[in-house]
């Protein structure tokens, strides 16, 4: 690589560097736009309505399964597909069980004491209540309730 750069002029090296920076910027902007589109599809009511209509069209009542159960199964599969696509993965390669297991692991990780940065963890920084201060064990309970998203 250095030998190739040594063969080129300073202007050529400068232009190649600027081209690489521009290429990186464009690829980053494209990735940001694609991700924003995927997440907007995830929360867009029209996409949800479209998924509901597609699920209703594809749902077929069979022996042992009502039309409503088939619709729920299809709609759940459509929601799974949208979520996995929004996360940036191929929906055919990730099952619902894998997604649920990953979510449970993330919840477990955020509930462990060392992984929870919270100002209420130490008794000296806890807010005073009318009658008494919290014990350290109630500080951990406070932290898990107020500092972390619910799992």
């Amino acid at each position: 690589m250095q030998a190739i750069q040594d063969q080129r002029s300073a202007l050529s090296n400068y232009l190649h560097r600027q081209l690489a920076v521009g290429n990186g910027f464009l690829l980053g902007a494209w990735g940001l736009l694609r991700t924003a589109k995927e997440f907007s599809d995830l929360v867009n009511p029209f996409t949800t309505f479209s998924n509901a209509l597609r699920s209703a069209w594809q749902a077929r009542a069979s022996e042992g399964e009502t039309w409503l159960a088939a619709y729920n199964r299809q709609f759940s599969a459509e929601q799974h597909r949208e979520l996995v696509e929004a996360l940036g993965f191929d929906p055919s390669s990730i099952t619902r069980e894998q997604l649920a297991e990953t979510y449970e692991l993330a919840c477990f990780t955020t509930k462990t004491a060392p992984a929870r940065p919270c100002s209420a963890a130490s008794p000296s920084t806890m807010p005073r209540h009318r009658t008494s201060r919290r014990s350290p064990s109630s500080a951990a309970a406070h932290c898990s309730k107020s500092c972390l998203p619910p799992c």
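The mean pLDDT is 77. The chain is about 70% helix and 0% strand.
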